[in-house]
């Protein structure tokens, strides 16, 4: 069984990197992607059995924090922030947690992290699997 993942990030290259990373994990499958929070909200009704959302914070139209405010009312999927501005101890990471983010992982090198798998892959995998273990419990 694969957990269904939606990737929400305004950078097309970042969505591509995350998609490529997910293909290396047999227990996760990207089933949707969105370029901003509003687009992601619109897609939530199309995927009622979504398991996990990987969410950037800084996006046009609707940012990740605003998406969190709405999404927690519309989905049971776990939400993991994946953003360059959510480094440990940052005010935005704390705000994301306060709004209901289930996990927070910092992108390693800015908006488009071409080294995502190399620098953050193990941590992201660990967080994603922990969230899915807790979901199943």
Automatic annotation (TrEMBL):
Gene3D superfamilies: 3.40.50.2300. This is Chemotaxis response regulator protein-glutamate methylesterase. Keywords: Hydrolase, Phosphoprotein. PROSITE patterns: RESPONSE_REGULATORY. Its EC number is 3.1.1.61. The modification 4-aspartylphosphate is found at residue 56. Pfam families: Response_reg. InterPro entries: CheY-like_superfamily, Sig_transdc_resp-reg_receiver. Residues 4-122 form the Response regulatory domain. One of its GO terms (biological process) is phosphorelay signal transduction system. One of its GO terms (molecular function) is protein-glutamate methylesterase activity. It comes from the Bacteria. The keyword Signal does not apply. It comes from Pseudoprimorskyibacter insulae.
